[in-house]
Amino acid sequence: MNSKKAIAVMASGRGSNLKVILESVAAGACPVDVRLVISDKADAEALQIARAAGVAHVVWMNPKDYQDRAQFDAACADLIDHHGCQWIVLAGYMRILSSFFVRRFPQRIINIHPSILPSFAGARAVEDALSYGVKVSGCTVHLVDEVLDGGSILAQAIVPVLDHDTRESLHVRIQKEEHQLYPKTLTRMVEQGFKIDGRSVIWLS
Question: Is 0.90 topped by the overall pTM?
């Protein structure tokens, strides 16, 4: 049965955002129910983090077992529905979702991106911000639509860009904000809810 608090997390790598979400849940600060964690990488640390935290369903889905991206995404979507997950939370998931997948879960897929969108979309956001010479950067929690990093914005946080920042030093400061912002936004999402007015997210109550 679907619950408005039930989430599936999709992750490909170290799982740092998954870890802080699970820690926030364990501390009673984030009232979501992480029912399912899916990874497309067999060696993703996110899988170990999920198992250690006691997530009920932790699954490696091997893309090579499927004919194409659409088939793989369909299998993931069926698994998400089977476990009654209302929300899909991307936490360092490195595969671009197919249009089919996005349309199946409209306004239910959440991502976090290391820039102040709409500036610096894509995989090189931190490097691109530094190359451009911006004085502030940050992170954005947004809904996922069929445009890469193009969905409506749920929340943003700002960090300063320092004169001698490298990609690594700036990314560390951005991730600190991500680890605060993501659990807080998920909490607001399930407790308050929202509606969409044009491109704008309007938080309820």
Answer: yes
